[in-house]
Amino acid sequence: MGGLLVKRFVKSLWLVLVLAGTAQSPAFAQPLSREVPAWLQRHVGTGEGQIAPVVLERARDLYRQQVRRAGVRNPCYMAMDATRPSTSSRGTPAQRYYIICEAQGTFRAVSSGYGNGRSIPGADFSNGRECARHFSNALGSNLTMGGSYLTAEARTSHKGYIRQGGQTVPFNRTFLVFDGMRETSNARDRAIGGHMAAFVRSQCRMSAPNSPHADDDGFVRFGRLIDYTSGRSNGCTTWSEDVSQQIISMVDGNRTSLYIYPESRDISAVASAVSNGRSPAAEGLYWNSSCLSQIGAPQFWPKRQLEPIIRDWRASLPTPNYSPLPICQ
């Protein structure tokens, strides 16, 4: 009996050490925990519409932590895999954002945008339309930062008037604020959150003196609605109109967790493997294979490195000379 207890203790200690090591390591291809329900296991993988094992494991761990520590009561949590491409093999927006409700037994994979970055004197950290290579938490970088987030308040603001269904109507967009942790802790300072992937490209000023959005002269901005679903953004997470409505209604006043992959440690590990001529997959590291072949190797820009470059660039810019929009005809 005593020998059996010792064996159980050793096995338990080994498991604790393995899990602790995994939590501190990059994205090694560990098998999923046996406690993941069978219906969810069916959605796990690296194919289209699936969630990679490491992304799910970290998203579940974050959600459980926030249920315990932050009092999260939302039955659903979210995740994003920013290593995936923007377009699927069918030419449609690729699915790389996940809404998982284990209590309800539902899983939904949808499209999402990622940070476009910039190309400025002293540094080119711009991302292409299909795959993200550059990541950062630097202010003004316009880049995605992987890691842990909690959804916060939703703010709705007016963006201009558009023509829709034969009528001229106001376009208001809701922005879901993200609160970050550790490497993402400056998310609010960076104005990072989620919103519908659309904006109004202003064309002229329209007379609308009775509009609550009119300026002192009685004009409002009128323009064309630009939809950039699954494309690039200024670092925020962006969704299609229907997905945006679903997510915001799901979390407004009932916050939940969001885990975005990859973190800086994952990026550094994959970049190191590539630079040394090794296959990341053979090293037990995860990155979407089609995007890795396109970008060569990912790069993480720490804010301590990138923010001084961005500040110097901004300081060198001339004072903008804005001309008023023409009056709509």
Automatic annotation (TrEMBL):
Record keyword Signal present: yes
Domain of life: Bacteria
A Pfam family annotated for this UniProt entry: YkuD_2
Lineage of the species this protein comes from: Bacteria, Pseudomonadati, Pseudomonadota, Alphaproteobacteria, Rhodobacterales
Protein name as annotated: L,D-transpeptidase catalytic domain
Signal peptide (from-to): 1-29
Keywords: Signal
